[in-house]
TrEMBL record:
<dbReference type="InterPro" id="IPR052341">
    <property type="entry name" value="LOG_family_nucleotidases"/>
</dbReference>
<keyword id="KW-0378">Hydrolase</keyword>
<protein>
    <recommendedName>
        <fullName>Cytokinin riboside 5'-monophosphate phosphoribohydrolase</fullName>
        <ecNumber>3.2.2.n1</ecNumber>
    </recommendedName>
</protein>
<dbReference type="InterPro" id="IPR031100">
    <property type="entry name" value="LOG_fam"/>
</dbReference>
<comment type="similarity">
    <text>Belongs to the LOG family.</text>
</comment>
<dbReference type="InterPro" id="IPR005269">
    <property type="entry name" value="LOG"/>
</dbReference>
<dbReference type="Pfam" id="PF03641">
    <property type="entry name" value="Lysine_decarbox"/>
</dbReference>
<keyword id="KW-0203">Cytokinin biosynthesis</keyword>
Length: 264
């Protein structure tokens, strides 16, 4: 049955894609420019922007940046673990993320995640079970993103882009567990910043070869279409185990940095 499901996904037709868009995305996307009357989005899109209102918005954004900088500035060496919010305890990818968080904490790293359930919870949980420091950078969403209990502290963000800056700024490596749109957003954010020499270079590691096979195939297709150059293929290392991820990160660090780690 599993093989049949995989085959069906590989053969997703244009008609199936269109049917899914009509059912799940059409209303949200076509209503976006004209949201519910009197909502914040409606006022923002329909009214002329004024310098005063834009300064108010900038103030809220700046305040959120200041909160993140203040709370995270004292961290020691840290890694960020990205992944889906939808995995449940006992499921293979949940447990793989739990093992990964545990391994990095034991190696002396502070573990950062998006602070929610699923793979994020698992990574925080594994790190906490190892006795390490672990923090959640939670995002305010209508559903799915409630802070998990396995953190030393949880910091709440309204703006995705501010939260992503914090998840990238304070880490020396990025570990990507299986995930959906949000995880892919974070993966390509990190990859783009590294590619453009805006950060790092830092290790960018995907855990779970079976899950990431589709990404490899798509990147190959994109290269055939001329949008990936040969030196951009393989922009992240794909590994199967937390131990492989740990070894890659440790091998990338300068000796003085490695000496600052305090393995548990």
């Amino acid at each position: 049955m599993e093989a049949n499901n995989e085959d069906n996904l590989k053969r997703l037709s244009h008609e199936q894609w269109e049917e899914a868009w009509q059912k799940h995305w059409k209303k949200a996307q076509l209503d976006y420019e004209l949201p519910v009357k009197d909502s914040e989005e409606h006022r923002f899109l329909s009214e002329r922007r004024t310098a005063e209102k834009e300064k108010e918005r900038l103030g809220r954004i700046t305040s959120e940046f200041e909160m993140g900088f203040t709370k995270l500035s004292q961290l020691g060496p840290a890694v960020t673990i990205f992944g889906s919010a939808r995995f449940k305890p006992g499921e293979p990818y949940y447990e793989l993320s739990r093992e990964t968080g545990n391994a990095f904490a034991k190696a002396g790293f502070t573990v950062l995640t998006g602070g929610g359930p699923g793979a994020m919870e698992a990574a925080n949980r594994g790190a906490k079970e190892a006795g390490g420091l672990t923090y959640g950078l939670n995002i305010i969403l209508p559903k799915e993103q409630q802070p998990n209990p396995y953190v030393n502290d949880s910091f709440e963000f309204k703006y995705f882009f501010v939260r992503k800056v914090m998840l990238v700024k304070y880490s020396c490596a990025f570990i990507v567990m299986p995930g959906g749109l949000g995880t892919l957003d974070e993966l390509f954010e990190a990859a783009t910043l590294i590619q453009c020499h805006k950060i790092g270079p830092f290790p960018l590691i995907l855990v779970g070869g079976k899950f990431w096979k589709g990404l490899r195939d798509f990147v190959g297709f994109m290269a055939d279409q001329g949008v990936f150059s040969p030196d951009e293929i393989g922009f992240s290392r794909i590994v199967e185990t937390p131990e492989e991820a740990i070894n890659m990160v440790l091998s990338s660090l300068p000796n003085d940095f490695k000496n600052s780690l305090k393995p548990l």
